[in-house]
């Protein structure tokens, strides 16, 4: 039987505190691992359903044979040339949006600070639409402009928000303002475009996986093979920054360089995802909060955020293709899902006095 807390020696009390903290961390890691495993199973099920079902149904066995190299008339073209590139694009773009949103929301400590709210994807959209409508580029070749636009918007937002350091509230307000300006640039480009160019640009800025091909996949997945591990490596600094800048500095974290690296990785992830699938609305915004609710507490949850983002995009694309009379772009479905969540978040923030 242990002695009352007031009668224990300091070393015993310290050992009990350390044991308690370790137990809490073990429970948190176990829950995060369970959530990630569950999301992986859901994602695998969605991938199988997406590959098998549609206007032309293919059995699971035939899908496996086609992936293994078998040539089945009709089915091979549908699965190999249409559904698999679309599926892989959705998985990669969703994961990238999810991790990017989680980085920004954790860094700024505000759920509104996702790339699609603070203007980074708006920068990608404005540059890509300008290239499509004013320079006559094919939407499939607009990716470099989208990436450049995202970086330019992020640099402008970061520069305007800088006052010796970057505060979260100022970054969000500046980002929303820049997003409004970039939205005007997009509208101006559309009004001066030919009808065919404008229609192509409208599909792209809605967020769609229709342009997914094997040839475009390396532009998405090669950067992700670098960016996703980089986000994992920077996760330790991000966890320290969650405690506050003073606490992070006390732990040996260099504050501003760490922020700059995290912002750079977050912008790169949002940029390559936008270049691959367009600015799919609200995926970056939704993935992080959903992942944190699933894992419990306010932890970082980068891996669950990536999985949630991939699940959202894959499920929304399947729903847009199968649940309506015509195929709807994935961005329409995510926009319908995300808008009520944004309103709920703003209403909740106002009730607790954080609504500005």
TrEMBL record:
Gene Ontology CC annotation, any one: plasma membrane
Annotated TM spans: 35-56, 87-108, 117-137, 143-162, 171-190, 219-239, 260-288, 294-316, 328-347
UniProt entry keywords in alphabetical sequence: Cell membrane, Membrane, Transmembrane, Transmembrane helix, Transport
Membrane topology designation: Multi-pass membrane protein
One Gene Ontology biological process: siderophore-iron import into cell
Single GO term (MF): transmembrane transporter activity
Locations listed in the record: Cell membrane
Name under which the protein is recorded: Iron complex transport system permease protein
Organism: Flavimobilis soli
